[in-house]
């Protein structure tokens, strides 16, 4: 924005510049150098909580995905990229933001670090947004078009999308590195001298490019992603809700066993999808609003007070998104939590698994040795059929024992006769196996008939 000489004169003439010290003059031009402790201390606590939880959550995400081959799927590649971008934003952006609350000026790290800070912060935020969009599309395909997921499955597709997201972000953030600079205030006014204590790292309005940089950033990296996320998550929610209605009808008819738990699970998934859309808007809308107000509402009377509070709010929510991302996209997943336990508590898990195997083997051994106690209920139906096979199979020595010792035993005699008539016993066993397998397959088909799209997305959600 350009100002005429008359406007500059009207702006300065009401000030008694001769009686102002350098600190007082800079306070009038740039605002207070130090903020109130009532504001700084709570903000410091909030930022430290965001920093610690964000670092822990994102590092944990990367560790779990790297150390668990089962977690190295297409969707988790997106989550790994999201965690890396969030870590960059937390490490390189948040400490500098926090230092500005304690001392707003001067900037003492030089021009190069000023430009790098602006570039890296902008780039990492772009990567986060684009990764969330790509991950949302992956979820959409898994839930609404599961067959397409199978036809285009593989790791090359997500890797290409992730590389494209980083490349777009790297290029799109270049203007912020070019036009962000260390700005100095002339003191005394119109003297040609600049105060070193007035250095601030920012892209000020008079030095912004001719093209609408903030506007394009808002449209490309907020409005369009917000629209895409809203559409795909709405369609996912409708798909899950319709599937829930069908399942509810089958439960009422008594056709499916245990589907009330699935209905509750789907309702929780719908709530999670809604939370993703709402939190994306809440975390990013104040940030872009504050930028647009700087461009279009700087001359208004209410702008200074509004900008002060909006700057604080947008900063907190901006960095809060890096903490909430691991919770929304990872910790709410049962598969991720199991992988996390396996990674962090692997020794405890191995010990527990060995003790469980020991208990299971003891149960099955007791079942095989004490058939008369009817303990076969502790084993599977298939194991019971195998026991029946063994009962119908006799060695020659067993046959002789059966003739000599147990000829009066009805059970042994019948078993002996079944062995002698092997041609009739085998079809009987085959029919038992076939009936059992058909029963299991029928139940499995009933449970998964209307759940193919949901079961396909279980690893994603």
From TrEMBL:
Disordered: annotated segments: 395-461
GO cellular component: plasma membrane
Membrane-spanning segments: 39-65, 77-96, 116-137, 158-179, 213-233, 269-289, 309-331
Domain of life: Eukaryota
Stretches assigned to the G-protein coupled receptors family 1 profile domain: 57-329
Entry-linked Gene3D superfamilies: Rhodopsin 7-helix transmembrane proteins
Similarity annotation: Belongs to the G-protein coupled receptor 1 family.
Protein name: Capa receptor-like GPCR isoform X1
Organism: Apis mellifera
